[in-house]
Amino acid sequence: MQLSGVLLVAQPGRLTEAMNAVRQIPGVDLHDVDAESERAIAVIEADDTHALVDTFKTIESLESVLKVSPVNHYFE
User: Fold this and answer.
1) What is the DSSP letter of 11?
2) Closest by Cα among 39, 31, 46, 32 to 11
3) In the β-sheet with 28-34, what is the strand arrangement from edge to edge?
4) Alpha-carbon span 9 to 23, nearest angstrom
5) Per residue in 1-44, pLDDT tens?
6) Which of 10, 27, 47, 54 sits at a 20 to 30 Å CA gap from 74?
């Protein structure tokens, strides 16, 4: 199992759209959303590194997401 905490930054004015899109991605849980700064903390859970990276890239490719930064990583 792989767990990765990430910081998401939405495109200006598109936080709600970004969060709705992220919530639809399997294996991603939003834990904190700061509307003022248009940022959120999420955790990606995946079976292996390849699946985790694919999920990260999926989030990164969303038009409403400006930036995704890894914060921490845990694996078993």
Assistant:
1) P
2) 39
3) 28-34, 39-46, 2-10, 65-75
4) 15
5) 999 999 999 999 999 999 999 999 999 999 999 999 999 999 99
6) 10
Q: 40 with 32: CB under 8 angstroms?
A: yes
Number of C-beta neighbours around residue 59 at 10 A: 18
d(CA 69, CA 39): 11
**Phi then psi for 35, rounded to 5 degrees?**
-65, -35
φ, ψ for residue 53 (rounded to 5)? -65, -40
- Which tokens hold the place of 2? 């792989």
Residue 45's contacts (CB-CB under 8 Å, 6 or more residues apart) are 1, 2, 3, 27, 28, 29
Cα separation, 62 vs 73, in Å, equals 22
